[in-house]
Amino acid sequence: MPPDRSLRCPVCGAPWRDSQARYCGRCGGPLPSSSARAERLAPRRRLVVVLVLLLAALGALAVFLVAAPRASRTAPPGPADDRDAVELPGAAADAGRDEARPTAGSSLLDCDGCHGWRLAVADPLTSLVADGRDVVVGTSGGRVLAIDGDTGERRWSAQVGDEAAHAVVLEDLIVVGTAGARVVGLDPADGRARWDVTVPIPTAGARAVAGDADGVLLAGGAGAGVVALDGRTGAVRWVRELPGRSIGVGETLVLLTLDRDLEGWRAGADGPRWSVGLGPDEDLVGRAGDLVVTRGTDGPRFRDAATGAVVATGAATVSWWAAADDGTLVLADTARRTQVIALAPDGAERWRTTLPGDEPDASCCVEVAPTSDGRVLAVDRRVAGRAAVLDLSTGAILSDAGRAAAAVPGLLLIGAHGDLGVLQGEGAVAGVSLATGEPRWRTSDASVLVGLDPLVVGGRRHLLGPWAHAPG
Question: Has this prediction a pTM greater than 0.90?
Answer without folding.
Answer: no
